[in-house]
């Protein structure tokens, strides 16, 4: 009898479970939900989905009426209620306080606030009951079993498997992930049969020109998310156009959704549902398909795109990462910052006072300069165009024009476009082949950020004046030896060492935990003092984005230490001569950065500076691979009326100009020579001197590059480098510039101003003289 009793008991439990599930399926008249209390939501039979109240992030006293994935930790919202106020076309999300009540009664589903006023209702009559289905669809059902209303028929920003969007329906993105207001993008299944994606001018419903379309006018029927996880657009003749195809696995093993995200991308995601898939997939939403391929490019290429800001806000630019969930990022250019870091669509504003139109040309040139930005363009906002023109004149014309915020120069056509604020349709892309210049305050005309924050670091530190006549252009902090001993953990981690001392990594005890590089000069007392004073005096007068910034010093007893900003990506030596060849575009960026840094030292600094030791270990790279010149221990300062100096032999083998070994005065052309060597090393990704190389003719890079140039075989210098070969014209230009820099006679070498112009393509490059021919003619 025991087995029979057990069987009857199991049948009873099964019947009880079935009755319980059936009770969950049918939500009867008289049922209600409140944001707080025992009944806050209605579940689907499996518990996969819930319909009810979700607390809003950042505002826990306000609740959203929504459908969400109930078994996922973050409870991802798949649908949310919207309503339109009288006289308004733009619906807003239904957000209510904790005292509100949602009630299914008298054949009607109605949400009312604490005063009893109706906030939201589908307004469909004769409702007999409601159901929350395992598909994620919440439905109102009549007595005859027919659907009267469903969330699938009133979509927000997301569609789910088995959901269909017929003609005349649309998805609207959120404003940001935590703000459910209608956002800046729309995916519309238009009544003319076309599936189209539009930017929207919020808070209105005005549509700018489409940035993606199916091109099916007159033929389209509906957008379908089928039960296998595939999203497609159906035509009237039955043809299916794939939108995203993500048949990853049986639908039962994954949750699926397709969402028009706040950045305008329509992305399809999967989330592991079963234990089996969780062992193979991370417990997170994983991207499996998206349109368009690149939102930054798509919006900029939209036919007739003129008004609006583009993919990002005004004065910002859009960058797209196609390797990780197809992410979009909006960024501000140098000396600009977001109006709101969380709502980047609002754009960027300058962090400096605008240029006065009362300034004359000289005053404008003294207060402002043009800073270049790589691979970025703002194609709109032109108000003046010059052609033909060179880069230097393009810079000047923008600086002296109070309306001009940005200038764009195209070397091939020798055209300059001036632009005023606000800038729109900003885009970062490898395809940008023009020089973009942003007007910013001159470095020596404004204090550095460090000086603004110095009081936060060390309130008892004093600004330091070297001697009685040299005042730093930026505030330099004074550190005690004990400060730096703590910051470096006892000078434990060595970053590098050279003739004048060792550099250690450290971290300041400020609120930002600022990473630093501490140079400890270790020599005999007399030489220590000289090296220390030269470096402090030299770099203390400079401030430029391509120079390493001096943050502070320690001049305590016999200890001489210099504190610099820490460079995340190390030196050019490590970057260039490792096992992996750096991308050509990054090498170009580094070359231009070093050239601009030297131009500043030679011609734009208040006192002309000759560095005297330009080589890869003295060129450092920040987190964005911006090149910064470092180590000014051998530098020479020239007075305003000086052009040359007499000094002992300096520099490093392989980078030293020939005049160091002759009894002649030294000029800034020694740095030009060293730059020529580095430029060839950047082009070829090898050291200048490699005596162990198999082919003896290639052992000295400067000689071999000259031979390749004369024979018309520049390609041999970049053999195996597909990126460089694709840009072989620029490679040839860079090699020609390098050979001009390497002329034995200093007066034949170009200035760094001319070098930057030649590198930018702003001026024609004549064929450099052949050093071997020059030597032969002297014999």
Automatic annotation (TrEMBL):
A Pfam family per the record: Pkinase
Subcellular location field: Membrane
CDD domains from the UniProt entry: PAN_AP_plant
Catalytic activity: L-threonyl-[protein] + ATP = O-phospho-L-threonyl-[protein] + ADP + H(+); L-seryl-[protein] + ATP = O-phospho-L-seryl-[protein] + ADP + H(+)
Domain Bulb-type lectin: 18-153
Record's bilayer topology term: Single-pass type I membrane protein
Species annotation: Brachypodium distachyon (Purple false brome)
Domain of life: Eukaryota
Signal peptide: 1-21
Name this polypeptide is given: non-specific serine/threonine protein kinase
Binding residues annotated for ATP, in chain numbering: 520
EC number: 2.7.11.1
Residues in Protein kinase domain copies: 489-775
GO molecular function, one term: protein serine/threonine kinase activity
Keywords: ATP-binding, Disulfide bond, EGF-like domain, Glycoprotein, Kinase, Lectin, Membrane, Nucleotide-binding, Receptor, Serine/threonine-protein kinase, Signal, Transferase, Transmembrane, Transmembrane helix
A Gene Ontology biological process term: response to other organism
Annotated Gene Ontology cellular component terms: membrane
Alphabetized Gene3D superfamilies for the sequence: 2.90.10.30, Bulb-type lectin domain, Phosphorylase Kinase, domain 1, Transferase(Phosphotransferase) domain 1
PROSITE patterns assigned to the protein according to its UniProt record, in alphabetical order: BULB_LECTIN (PS50927), PROTEIN_KINASE_ATP (PS00107), PROTEIN_KINASE_DOM (PS50011), PROTEIN_KINASE_ST (PS00108)
């Amino acid at each position: 009898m025991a087995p029979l009793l057990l069987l009857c008991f199991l049948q009873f439990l099964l019947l009880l479970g079935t009755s319980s599930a059936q009770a969950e399926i049918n939500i009867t008249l008289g049922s209600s939900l409140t944001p707080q209390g025992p009944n806050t939501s209605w579940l689907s039979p499996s518990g996969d989905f819930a319909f009810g109240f979700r607390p809003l992030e950042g505002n826990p006293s306000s609740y959203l009426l929504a459908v969400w994935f109930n078994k996922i930790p973050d409870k991802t919202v798949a649908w949310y209620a919207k309503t339109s106020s009288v006289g308004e076309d733009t619906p807003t999300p239904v957000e209510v306080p904790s005292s509100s009540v949602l009630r299914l009664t008298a054949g009607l589903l109605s949400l009312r606030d604490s005063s009893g006023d109706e906030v939201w209702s589908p307004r469909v009559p004769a409702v007999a009951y409601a159901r929350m289905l395992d598909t994620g669809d919440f439905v109102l059902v009549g007595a005859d079993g027919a659907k009267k209303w469903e969330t699938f028929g009133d979509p927000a920003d997301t569609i789910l498997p088995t959901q269909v969007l017929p003609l005349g329906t649309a998805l609207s993105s959120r404003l940001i992930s935590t703000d459910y207001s209608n956002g800046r993008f729309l995916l519309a299944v238009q009544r003319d049969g076309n599936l189209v994606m539009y930017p929207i001018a919020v808070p209105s419903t005005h549509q700018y020109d489409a940035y993606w379309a199916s091109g099916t006018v007159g033929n389209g029927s509906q957008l379908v998310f089928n039960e296998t996880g595939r999203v497609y657009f159906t035509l009237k003749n039955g043809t299916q156009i794939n939108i995203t195809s993500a048949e990853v696995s049986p639908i039962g093993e994954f949750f699926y959704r397709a969402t028009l995200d706040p950045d305008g991308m329509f992305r399809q995601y999967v989330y592991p549902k079963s234990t089996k898939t969780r062992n193979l997939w991370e417990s997170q939403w994983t991207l499996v398909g998206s349109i368009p391929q690149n939102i930054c490019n798509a919006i900029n290429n939209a036919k007739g795109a003129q008004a609006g800001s583009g993919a990002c806000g005004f004065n910002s630019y859009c960058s797209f990462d196609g390797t990780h969930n197809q992410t979009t990022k909006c960024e501000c250019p140098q000396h600009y910052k977001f109006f709101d870091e969380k709502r980047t669509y609002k754009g960027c504003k300058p962090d400096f006072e605008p240029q006065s139109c009362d300034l004359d040309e000289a005053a404008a040139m003294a207060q402002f300069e043009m800073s270049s930005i790589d691979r970025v363009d703002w194609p709109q906002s032109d108000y003046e165009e010059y052609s033909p023109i060179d880069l230097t004149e393009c810079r000047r014309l923008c600086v002296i024009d109070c309306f001009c915020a940005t200038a764009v120069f195209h070397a091939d056509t020798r055209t300059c476009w001036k632009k005023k604020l606000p800038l729109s349709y900003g885009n970062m892309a490898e395809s940008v082949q023009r020089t973009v210049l942003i007007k910013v305050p001159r470095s020596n005309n404004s204090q550095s950020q460090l000086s603004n924050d110095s009081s936060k670091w060390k309130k008892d530190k004093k600004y330091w004046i070297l001697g009685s006549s040299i005042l730093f252009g930026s505030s330099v902090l004074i550190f005690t030896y004990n400060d730096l001993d703590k910051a470096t953990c006892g000078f434990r981690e060595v970053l590098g060492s050279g003739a004048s001392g060792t550099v250690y990594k450290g971290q300041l005890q400020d609120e930002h935990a600022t990473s630093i590089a501490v140079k400890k000069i270790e020599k005999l007392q007399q030489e220590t003092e000289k090296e220390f004073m030269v470096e402090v005096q030299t770099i203390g007068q400079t401030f430029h984005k391509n120079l390493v910034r001096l943050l502070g010093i320690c001049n305590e007893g016999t200890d001489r230490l210099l504190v610099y900003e820490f460079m995340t990506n190390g030196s050019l030596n490590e970057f260039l001569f490792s096992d992996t060849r750096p991308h050509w575009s990054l090498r170009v960026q580094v070359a231009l950065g070093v050239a601009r840094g030297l131009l500043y030292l030679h011609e734009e600094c208040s006192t002309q500076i000759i560095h005297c030791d330009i080589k890869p270990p003295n060129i450092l790279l920040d987190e964005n691979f911006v090149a910064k010149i470092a180590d000014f221990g051998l530098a020479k300062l020239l007075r305003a009326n000086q052009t040359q100096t007499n000094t002992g032999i300096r520099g490093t083998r392989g980078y030293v100009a020939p005049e160091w070994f002759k009894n002649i005065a030294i000029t800034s052309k020694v740095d030009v020579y060293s730059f020529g060597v580095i430029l060839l090393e950047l082009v070829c990704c090898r050291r200048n001197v490699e005596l162990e190389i198999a082919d003896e003719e290639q052992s000295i890079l400067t000689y071999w590059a000259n031979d390749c140039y004369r024979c018309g075989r520049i390609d041999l210098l970049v053999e195996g480098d597909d990126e460089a070969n694709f840009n072989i014209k620029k490679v040839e230009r860079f090699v020609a510039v390098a050979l001009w820099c390497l002329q034995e006679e200093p007066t034949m070498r170009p200035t760094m101003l001319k070098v930057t112009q030649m590198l930018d393509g702003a001026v024609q490059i004549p064929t450099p003289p052949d050093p071997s021919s020059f030597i032969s003619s002297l014999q």
